[in-house]
Amino acid sequence: MSLHIDPVFAQTDITAAGTDDLTGLDDWRSMDAKQQPTYLDAEALEDSLTKLRSLPPLIFAGEADVLKQRIAAASRGEAFVLAGGDCAESFAGAQADKIRARVQTVLQMAAVLTYGGSMPVVKIGRMAGQFAKPRSADMETRDGVTLPSFRGDIVNGYEFTEESRRHDPARLLQGYHVSSSTLNLIRAFTQGGFADLRLVHEWNRGFLASNPGYQRYEQTAREIDRAIRFMDACGADFDALRTTEFYSAHEALLLEYERALTRIDSRTGLPYDVSGHFLWIGERTREIDGAHVDFLSKVQNPIGVKLGPTATAEDALALAEKLDPNAEPGRLTFVTRMGAGKINDVLPKLLAGIGDRLPQVTWMSDPMHGNTITSSTGYKTRRFEDVMAEVEGFFSAHQEAGTIPGGLHIELTGDDVTEIMGGATEIDDEGLRRRYETLVDPRLNHDQSLEMAFQVAEYLTRRG
Ligand code: PEP
Ligand code: CO
């Protein structure tokens, strides 16, 4: 396998024989790669990959480096990371209003958290590439018919037909193009004035007025009002606050796709996965000798690994050794997703087992994936109260251990869906029926996301 390089990034003779051995970017091919699609048409796959290799990068390696510095600041308690977006983006959902609503939700949450923590919030969207899903079952049976499970739009279709569920390599290219147009709009919004702090604060005012249940957050909103007026009176440059950094992230699940979008950075001569700024390894693909860990060990991006309730301190230490051998701040984030019923037991043990051996690692909480249940009405859902209990367990475990709770990783949408039970809007088992739209996991809706942000702001204030 030769190394394919985008001309924009190409160094003079980097394609010379032997380069592969130096970068190791294809070593994963001899390892166990879980959760990969089964393509029946090898030629069609090669055709898609050839095209992907020649398409421009979606991000610039220098941006990934800046993000790494931002995440490093979070590991020291000087910033807080907020990563949010769909469990699974869909091609059809890449519409301006839906993208805008998600970006808006993240910006609104970030404004509240910035105030609560008195520190910068690093904004990351599970967006512009979050198309591939690991599944616990390869096949799905409905009314006696068994077909391959839906693995995300970049692999197959959601519709339950043989044709749609076939793994189609042409979808890899579609995934790239939808990522590209989504990222373009995100960049336009966040550079073009949509992120204006004063505007974002007005939206938050509107949110608080929408439900009497939010009155307890009025105090925080009033304090933010005063802080903005204070800044204004001091002559702060609000125009400088009209734009913001906003990064893209997705699970690096499909190794052929990630490999085809990995390029040599012309500045450093090192490989970067240019499909997104931040890439993570899921709970199901994090084996230390597996293909995913090996592949991400070879690229320079900031990366994450999900750690579920069975993860041991030895697992974490081995992952850090392989993925972050130089103990580079910002390089490695552990995203814990233990479940509300387990976190108070397992996270303190995990942190104690690691002790002071991983000071460079950033710790984030994913309070979603350990808290999935089925409602009495048959929906895959989560309880808002469980999600918040896991966040609280995350903060207290780190406080006890003397480590830093560096951020949140959540599944949200900007729309008014009814997928998660509870919160001040009091969605119950029956209420889930009203607007349940997710393709895979249930997401916090716009209001639930903001409710979470106001609560977490209180934890951050206490911590400060
Ligand atoms: C996800 O983030 O959508 C996911 C599948 O998470 P995990 O790997 O933690 O189960
Ligand atoms: Co999910």
Describe the overall structure.
By secondary structure, this protein is of the alpha/beta class. It has a domain at 59-130 and 244-462: TIM Barrel (Alpha-Beta Barrel), CATH 3.20.20.70. It is 39% helix and 13% strand. It contains 14 helices and 14 strands. The protein has helices at residues 19-23, 42-54, 61-75, 96-117, 162-165, 170-192, 197-209, 218-233, 255-260, 291-297, 313-323, 343-354, 384-401, 446-463, and strands at 80-85, 121-125, 139-142, 145-148, 247-251, 262-264, 271-273, 278-281, 303-307, 332-336, 362-365, 373-374, 380-381, 405-411. The strands form four sheets. The chain has an eight-stranded parallel β-barrel with strand order 1-2-5-8-9-10-11-14, surrounded by five helices. A two-stranded antiparallel sheet has the order 3-4. Helix 7 (197-209) runs antiparallel to helix 8 and helix 13 packs parallel to helix 14. The longest helix has 23 residues, at 170-192. The chain is globular. The relative contact order is 0.15. Mean pLDDT is 94; it is low at 1-19. The structure holds phosphoenolpyruvate and cobalt (II) ion. Cobalt (II) ion is lined by residues 87, 369, 411, 440-441. Phosphoenolpyruvate binds at residues 87, 134, 251, 282-284, 306, 337, 366, 369, 441.
Give the ligands present: phosphoenolpyruvate, cobalt (II) ion
Q: What characteristic shape results from the CA principal axes?
A: globular
Distance between the termini: 52 Å
Structural class comes to alpha/beta
The total strand number stands at 14
Residue ranges: pLDDT <50 for 5 or more in a row?
1-19
- Described by its quaternary structure, the protein is single chain
Number of alpha- plus pi-helical segments: 14
State the share of residues found in helices, binned by percent. Answer: 25-40%
| CATH top level label of the domain at 59-130 and 244-462 | Alpha Beta
Strand content: 5-15%
Overall pLDDT level: 94
Largest sheet: 8 strands, parallel, barrel
Determine the CATH superfamily of the domain at 59-130 and 244-462.
Aldolase class I
Strand order of the largest sheet: 1-2-5-8-9-10-11-14
- Provide the CATH topology of the domain at 59-130 and 244-462: TIM Barrel
Q: Order of helices and strands, N to C?
A: HHHEHEEEHHHHEHEEEHEHEHEEEHEH
